[in-house]
Every structure is written in C-alpha cells, then in structure tokens.
Design the sequence.
C-alpha cells in the first residue's frame, strides 16, 4: 500500500483571514534518531571523498503545493521518487507526475580552480567547467560534476566567461530569501533567519524560501525579486571588497525608476552613509549619502537612445574604493564613471534595491564578486554581431574564433592571428545574438548546480551513487549526485504556487 505524507505526519489547519478554505501545514519533525537505521544519502564529493548532506532537512515539494522534509533516496522515471521520513516505517513513494521540486542542500567540497569557466547556452542555461578544447563543431568541457567530459555543439553556445566568477564570488543568487530583509510585504523570522511574506503559509520550516503573498512590495518568485510598488525595498549585508563588481539582470514594464544602495551602513533609504546609483528609462545618477549632510548628487547623465526602448538589460556597477570611483555599465557598455572628490564615504556592508516608481521590476541573476579593476574598451558593446568577440585583460577584439587547444585560444582578427593563453581571456562571445527557447520533453528536469549554473536534461534514474539521463544538447549524461542543490520536475506543468503569480515576464 502506498503511504502518503498526510497519513503519517500530524497536520495543522490554518484559516487564512482572506480565504474561506484551510491550508495544510506539515509540522516540523525531529532529526531521525539511531532507530531509523536508514541514513539519508551519502554522496561522493568532487575529489572522490564521501560527504554527507547538510543537517538541514531536504525538502520535496509537490505540484499541489504540499511540501515535506526528509531525505531524497532515489528516483526512477517509471516508479517515481522515493522519500525517507523519520516518522514513516517505510520509504514514501511519490509518482513522478506529482513532484514539483526537490531541495537537496548538499555540502560540496572545494571545486578545482580550473573549473571556473561559465558556458552560457543560447537557451540561457549555464554550465561550469574547464575548457579542454574547441573546434569548428564542438566544445569539450571538463566538469567536476560529470563522470565524463561534456561535448557541446558550438552553435548552441552564446558565450564563455573565463574570469573565474565563482572563484571570487561574494554573493550569487537569489536562490532563496536567506539573508534578505524587505519592507512592505516581507518580515524577518529572527529564529530562523528566513524572510516570510505577511499572511503567507509556511509549509516547511527552514527550507530557505518563502512564497509570495499579496501584490505589493518585493516578491520572491522563480529565483527573482519582483516589485510593483513605489517605495518597496529589499537588501542584505555583504562583505564588500576594495574593488567590487555588482551585477544583475534588470527587466521592467513601463517607465521605471530604481535606486541601488551600495556600501551603506544602514538598511534605510535616508540617514545612511554610502552611495546610491539611480537608474531610469532615461538617465542615471550617483548620490553620496551621509547621515549628517543628506544626499549630494555627484553627477547624472542621460542614457543613450538605444536603451530607452529596451525592456531589460544586464547592469554592472563596479566600485573602486581606493580610487574613489563608481562606474555603471549596461550590457557591457560603460555608461558613466563617477569620481567622489570628497573621498570614498562607503564603509558599510549593505546592498539594497529600492523601487521608486509603479512600474513592474524584476531583478535576477545577482552576482557580487571581487573585481580586478579592468574595464571593457569604451564602445565595446557595439560589436558586429556576425563576428566573434574576444575580451582580454585590457582590450576586446572582433573576428573569428578558430579554436581552443593545449591551453591556448586561437583567434583570427583583421590585423593578425592571435594565439592567447586561456588565462589571459575573460570573455568569448560567439557571433550572432540569436536566443533559443529550451525545448522540453517528457521526463525533462531542470537541475541547479551547487557551485552555480543550471541546465535541463531528461532524468532516467537518480541513486546515491549516480545520476543518469540524456541531454538534447550534449547527449548521454552521468553525473555525481553531490553536484546539485535542487531538481525541478514536470517543467511544463502548472504549479499551485504559480496559480496567483502574475509576475512571470
């Protein structure tokens, strides 16, 4: 007989003030004792050593919105997911077509230094690994999370970042709400350090996420922050470096206005010491903020005409404390560099986003890293799209990427043929700006790597030792289970949590 979680776990019914229907909340349970002599998954780390999952319970979420803590045992495309719970005498089996997501919380060892290149596919999927070789047809990527090198068709690749983003990362996300503090709709649970929207249910404590509730303020949905209200703010503390690069994807609807607070000593709109970068459809500015003197505008500039008609951009704010400089880039193009003649005022550790208009805003793929101080060549973003782009330490060149072999990048420019060490290259962007949608098939799952990156493949079987399946891009796959922080199932099916989500854009 199949055992369901509701038959073995005490439940509590919470009557929402705005609804006449009760919602089921599964109560937290204690960590399994010695009597449950079937431990959770113990998986090999990147260097072959056995490592245990974190003490934080793993979480399985179902399409109907139910969630349950425990340990992921295995998955088979035919029989579904097998789940272990300390209150159950036997493992619980869930049908494959009922599972939404599994949160794994792995404890991953140190990733080899050479495996910090980021390959972005034209579908938006991201793979991390070591560049082994590239020819006219394929890229061979050595990946610590795979038992075999991955062979990726060249025409499926959008760009390769070789600047070691993960190696010097200060923060990458958001994958959940841990550490973030918001206003208007978010509040902090001091005991668990998890932000919970007012009025929202909490199906599983300590699972590192909260579901949106209401249509005001900043919402967390699908690894993004979304706002529709002026004055909504969300922020966190960071360990800024002397030279820091703050990057994120910004999407908007209508006329927008957003303020990004940097190096601030308070999570407040006013009365803090730090800097504010303001950005709208038409202009940008830098403000020096002090508790004693208020806001002082260092300078503003109109955006180029080409950005005014767009609805999204990759924003980069590069800060150099020693040189009192803050630089704004959009889509790898330098928009403005400001110098604070009064000396660098930012001594705090706060990063905060403040919506200053009614437009719908979405912030995703936030990356805060140490910065080497190098800047792309002015106007470099205006390259010819029918040519490959090679960016080095101090310049970028358009031309033809011949290949990669023996640690060297072979590149043919109009003026010369170059043979450059991979270590000297920071970015390769392939010709064409064509983007593709991920084609989903039956049994496809989306996995998120513990070290960053995500991709889709058809999952056949998941055990404690091995993950097997097939990718439409790089073929047969054989992965290490310890590589992944989450797995999303039934990608084309509607989630209960998405039923009232109007922010998907």
Sequence:
């Amino acid at each position: 007989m199949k055992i369901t979680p509701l038959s073995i776990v005490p439940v509590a019914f919470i009557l929402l003030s705005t609804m006449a229907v009760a919602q089921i909340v599964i109560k937290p349970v204690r960590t399994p004792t010695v009597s449950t002599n079937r431990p959770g998954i113990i998986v090999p780390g990147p260097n072959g050593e056995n490592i245990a999952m974190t003490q934080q319970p793993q979480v399985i979420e179902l399409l109907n919105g139910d969630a349950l803590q425990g340990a992921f045992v295995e998955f088979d495309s035919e029989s579904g997911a097998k789940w272990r719970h300390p209150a159950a005498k036997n493992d619980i089996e869930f049908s494959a077509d009922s599972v939404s997501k599994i949160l794994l919380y792995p404890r991953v060892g140190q990733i080899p230094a050479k495996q910090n290149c980021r390959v972005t596919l034209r579908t938006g999927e991201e793979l991390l690994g070591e560049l082994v070789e590239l020819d006219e047809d394929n890229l061979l990527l050595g990946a610590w999370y795979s038992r075999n090198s991955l062979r990726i068709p060249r025409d499926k690749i959008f760009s390769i970042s070789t600047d070691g983003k993960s190696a010097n990362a200060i923060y990458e996300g958001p994958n959940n709400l841990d550490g973030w503090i918001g206003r208007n709709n978010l509040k902090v649970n001091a005991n668990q350090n998890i932000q919970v929207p007012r009025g929202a249910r909490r199906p599983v404590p300590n699972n590192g996420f909260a579901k949106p509730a209401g249509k005001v303020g900043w919402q967390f949905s699908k690894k993004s922050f979304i706002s529709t209200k002026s004055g909504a703010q969300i922020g966190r503390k960071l360990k800024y470096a002397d030279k820091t690069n703050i990057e994120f994807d910004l999407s908007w609807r209508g006329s927008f206005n957003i303020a990004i607070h940097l190096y601030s000593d308070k999570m407040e709109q006013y009365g803090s010491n730090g800097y504010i970068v303001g950005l709208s459809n038409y202009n940008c500015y830098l403000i020096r903020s002090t508790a004693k003197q208020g806001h002082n505008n260092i300078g503003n500039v109109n955006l180029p005409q080409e950005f005014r008609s767009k609805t999204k951009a990759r924003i980069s704010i590069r800060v150099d404390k020693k040189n009192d400089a803050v630089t704004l880039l959009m889509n790898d193009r330098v928009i403005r560099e400001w110098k604070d003649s009064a000396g660098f005022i930012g001594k705090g550790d706060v990063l905060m986003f403040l919506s200053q208009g009614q437009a719908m805003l979405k912030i995703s793929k936030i990356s805060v890293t140490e910065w080497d101080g190098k800047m792309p060549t002015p106007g470099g973003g205006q390259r010819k799209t029918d040519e490959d782009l090679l960016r080095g330490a101090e310049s970028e060149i358009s031309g033809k990427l011949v290949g990669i072999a023996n640690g060297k990048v072979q590149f043919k420019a109009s003026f010369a043929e170059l043979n450059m060490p991979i270590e000297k290259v920071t970015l390769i962007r392939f010709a064409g700006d064509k983007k593709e949608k991920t084609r989903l098939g039956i049994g496809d799952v989306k996995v998120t790597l513990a070290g960053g990156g995500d991709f889709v493949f058809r999952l056949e079987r998941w055990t404690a030792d091995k993950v097997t399946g097939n990718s439409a891009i790089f073929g047969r796959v054989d992965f290490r289970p310890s590589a992944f922080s989450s797995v999303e199932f039934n990608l084309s099916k509607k989630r209960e949590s998405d039923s009232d989500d109007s922010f998907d854009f």
